[in-house]
């Protein structure tokens, strides 16, 4: 193991989805949970919102970091018809979201920010991924929400589970971005900041 591999990796997220994704890279990491106001500003575009929140999570954690670590933060939203689609938090709202998406395409924006506290290098990437839903019946939507309860997922589905049955097609460079953490870009950024998952 190289000296760079000894640098600590911190995931600034309490999301079990992001934690499970990062585990795939095989690098030990610890987690911190940022406490920030994630309200959208008046007139704020989705891309600007995601970048601001992703970086704000990191800024909220900087004082808790050691001098020799790499911090990862991320945020995601779904966009449809110029609206930002959040987490439904209730079955009724999940059903309403999926009814709205039936036969339509939803774009997911995932922000990724990395900071190397040793070198002060930083990287920000915005990953886009599109999901086109097939025409869904009310019964299918209700059954899906009852089975998988995607109440804490933007867009009201879990693509890593039964949610794929809702789709007509998926388009993008990195399907893991849809789950909340784009691992291709994460791996690339880690290499550029001196922490190679394959070293």
Automatic annotation (TrEMBL):
Record: active site: 75 (proton acceptor)
Cofactor: a divalent metal cation
Protein name: 7-methyl-GTP pyrophosphatase
Site (Important for substrate specificity): 17, 76, 160
E.C. designation(s): 3.6.1.-
UniProt keyword Cytoplasm present: yes
HAMAP family on file: Maf
A Gene Ontology biological process term: nucleotide metabolic process
Similarity comment: family membership: Belongs to the Maf family. YceF subfamily.
Lineage: Bacteria, Pseudomonadati, Pseudomonadota, Gammaproteobacteria, Oceanospirillales
Designated gene of the protein: yceF
Function recorded in the entry: Nucleoside triphosphate pyrophosphatase that hydrolyzes 7-methyl-GTP (m(7)GTP). May have a dual role in cell division arrest and in preventing the incorporation of modified nucleotides into cellular nucleic acids.
InterPro entries (UniProt xref): ITPase-like_fam (IPR029001), Maf-like (IPR003697)
GO cellular component, one term: cytoplasm
Catalytic activity: N(7)-methyl-GTP + H2O = N(7)-methyl-GMP + diphosphate + H(+)
Subcellular location: Cytoplasm
Gene Ontology MF terms: nucleoside triphosphate diphosphatase activity
């Amino acid at each position: 193991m190289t000296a760079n591999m000894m640098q600590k990796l911190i995931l600034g997220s309490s999301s079990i989805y992001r934690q499970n994704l990062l585990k795939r890279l095989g690098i030990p990491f610890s987690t911190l949970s940022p406490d920030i106001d994630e309200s959208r500003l008046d007139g704020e575009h989705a891309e600007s919102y995601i970048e601001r929140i992703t970086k704000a999570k990191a800024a909220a954690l900087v004082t808790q970091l050691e001098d020799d670590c790499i911090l990862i933060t991320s945020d995601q939203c779904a966009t449809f018809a110029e609206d930002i689609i959040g987490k439904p938090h209730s079955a009724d709202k999940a059903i309403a979201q999926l009814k709205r998406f039936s036969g339509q395409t939803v774009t997911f924006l995932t922000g990724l920010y990395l900071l190397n506290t040793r070198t002060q290098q930083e990287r920000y990437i915005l990953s886009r991924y599109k999901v086109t839903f097939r025409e869904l019946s009310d019964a299918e939507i209700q059954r899906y929400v009852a089975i998988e309860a995607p109440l804490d997922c933007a867009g009201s589905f879990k693509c890593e589970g039964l949610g794929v049955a809702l789709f007509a097609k998926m388009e993008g460079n990195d399907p893991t971005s849809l789950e909340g953490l784009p691992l291709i870009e994460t791996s690339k950024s880690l290499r550029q900041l001196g922490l190679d998952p394959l070293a």
